[in-house]
UniProtKB/TrEMBL annotation:
NCBIfam families xref list: HEQRo_perm_3TM (TIGR01726)
PROSITE patterns reported for this sequence: ABC_TM1 (PS50928)
Protein's membrane topology: Multi-pass membrane protein
InterPro entries recorded: AA_ABC_transptr_permease_3TM, ArtM/GltK/GlnP/TcyL/YhdX-like, MetI-like, MetI-like_sf
Family: Belongs to the binding-protein-dependent transport system permease family.
Keywords: Amino-acid transport, Cell membrane, Membrane, Transmembrane, Transmembrane helix, Transport
Main localization of the protein described in the UniProt heading: membrane
Domain (ABC transmembrane type-1) ranges: 73-279
Protein name: Polar amino acid transport system permease protein
Gene Ontology molecular function: transmembrane transporter activity
GO biological process: amino acid transport
Subcellular location: Cell membrane
TM annotation in the entry: 32-55, 75-97, 109-129, 149-170, 225-245, 257-282
Length: 308
């Protein structure tokens, strides 16, 4: 808590030395009143959680770590990981397509981003789930020519495969804009200086552009990953046993809606917290390019404050 110090006003007519006057901390009654009201609201909410039997905490505790729920958490993490890796891989390609000097590549990349950002995720998932209705067979071969290898769509694209494909394509459209924003945030003079020094284009990207762009990319990219984690709950429409779907199955049997929803809520909060911590340490790592010393961790800040 910071305190603003001010000197007490000298009595009228006093000839005392101003430097010798006592220093008293500034009082902030409005701030203290607002903090007290906020604490009362929080206390009322916590009290409601504790005494309201509708929350049914025994049922919550019984299902929080059951094998079924833990397996569903694993499926949620798998969908998030696959969607993130594939989505950002495709997003980087699309981003550099928009940044290229080719008008054709720019137009295709812009159209891709426009389409996949315009269609709701649930619509895309249902579409990919029914892709075999449009294409019973997929084939590799010469464009508009003979097929070299073909296979049935339903044999290679299961429900979970369709979910990963839909999440990755949806994520790639947003990832492309995140990456593009990070690259264009770099001063163009650095590209010109690197070109004047004869540094190859690929090395410019690897040694100059990406290390600086990462500081702009990481916060937005982390937001996208967290959003994707929560968006996996939409996959329930494909009957995949991720966390939200499994919770619905359980409360459909026992009728305990609220405690089962709290189970899903707590797991989403835990997973989001882990991702946020990971984001903090990755950002701290890349901060070394802009600061002589890395920022202190929250624990180090707490220790310094206690010692001071």
């Amino acid at each position: 808590m910071s305190l603003t110090l001010r000197r007490a006003a000298a009595p009228p007519g006093s000839d005392a030395d101003p430097a010798a006057l006592p220093v008293v901390p500034a009082r902030h009654p409005g701030r203290w009143l607002a903090a007290l009201l906020a604490l009362l609201v929080v206390a009322q909410f916590v009290h409601g959680l504790a005494v309201n039997p509708g929350w049914d905490w025994p049922t919550f505790a019984r299902y929080l770590t059951t094998a079924t729920i833990l397996k569903a958490v694993g499926v949620t993490l798998q969908l998030t990981a696959y969607g993130t890796v594939l989505g950002f891989a495709a997003g980087i390609v699309v981003a550099f397509g928009r940044l290229s000097g080719s008008l054709v590549l720019q137009t295709i990349a812009w159209t891709y981003t426009w389409i996949f950002r315009s269609i709701p995720l649930i619509v895309q998932l249902v579409f990919w789930f029914n892709i075999s209705y449009l294409y019973q067979h997929l084939a590799l071969g010469v464009p508009f020519g003979p097929e070299l290898w073909s296979f049935r769509t339903v044999d290679v694209l299961s429900a979970q495969g369709a979910a990963v494909l839909g999440l990755a394509l949806y994520q790639s459209a947003y990832a492309a804009e995140v990456v593009r924003a990070g690259v264009i945030a770099i001063d163009s003079g650095q590209f010109e200086a690197a070109a004047a020094l004869g540094i190859p284009r690929l090395r410019q990207l690897r040694r100059i552009v990406l290390p600086q762009a990462m500081r702009s990319i990481l916060p937005n990219a982390a937001n996208q990953v967290i959003a994707l984690l929560k968006s996996t709950s939409v996959v329930y429409v494909m009957a995949i046993s991720e966390l939200f779907y499994q919770v619905q199955v359980v409360y459909g049997r026992n009728g305990r809606v609220v405690p089962l929803l709290m189970v899903a809520t707590v797991w989403y909060v835990v997973l989001t917290t882990v991702l946020s911590l990971l984001q903090y340490y990755v950002e701290r790592h890349f901060a070394r390019g802009a600061q002589r010393t890395v920022p202190p961790t929250p624990l180090q800040r707490l220790i310094r404050r206690v010692q001071s």
